[in-house]
Amino acid sequence: MYAGNPNQTRMTESASAAALAPNNPSPTFETLLATVLDGAFGTALRYTRNRNDAEDLVQEAALLAWRGFKSFEDGSNFKAWFFRILTNCFFSKYRKRKRQGTEIELEDTPELYLYCQTAAIGLHAQVEDPATALMEKLDTEQVEEAIAALPDEYRVVATLYFIQDFSYQEIADVVGVPVGTVRSRLHRSRRQLQKALWVIAEGRGIVSALTGGTDDGE
């Protein structure tokens, strides 16, 4: 099982330096894997929404990557290569399980959803930028909760783009779809995230606080 520890960051930084040092022999699988483990576990946790499943997913992906390491092209993007294995494992196995957490119904979410919702409650008359005012009240945990509420195919691309900072092309390579499909899914993910964030903000009392109603529990 993969589990984080206080020395993981230092180990990762050392491994990264070793992997990138000039005139060094080709880095070993273990060295390369150490540079991506933290990010892989965080991504797996967002994919599966369950810590035990995330640990199992990373472990399974690492085993498959080790077995297939001979196919990895030396000098190419190991992170993208490993994340493709991780993502394929998720799609082929873990998404079929009954997942924990709430998946918000986000079909037909209109453009400018936050704008319309904040206008409907009169927030535009109170602040210059209602959407920004709302986002500033949401912490990282709540934003990640919104990403976790997305359907699988949108949650995957949103995680890779917003959390891992992958490019459109890298996401396309990881997921195995054309760049145009990545752009389309990200566009829809942004629309869906607006609704998910609004639902969370309402449930946490943030909307009421912004409009002068009941407080947000602070």
CATH classification, class level of the largest domain:
Mainly Alpha
Number of helices: 11
Based on CA inertia axes, which overall geometry fits?
elongated
Please report which band the strand proportion falls in: under 5%, 5-15%, 15-25%, 25-35%, 35-45% or over 45%.
Answer: under 5%
Number of domains: 2
* Radius of gyration over C-alpha positions, nearest whole angstrom: 20 Å
CATH architecture label of the largest domain = Orthogonal Bundle
CATH superfamily of the largest domain: Winged helix-like DNA-binding domain superfamily/Winged helix DNA-binding domain
Summary?
This protein is mainly α and 218 residues long.
Describe the structure.
It contains eleven helices and no strands. The protein has 218 residues and is mainly α. The protein has two domains: 8-96, Rna Polymerase Sigma Factor, Chain: A (Orthogonal Bundle); 113-210, Winged helix-like DNA-binding domain superfamily/Winged helix DNA-binding domain (Arc Repressor Mutant, subunit A, Orthogonal Bundle). The model is unreliable at 1-15 and 214-218 (pLDDT under 50).
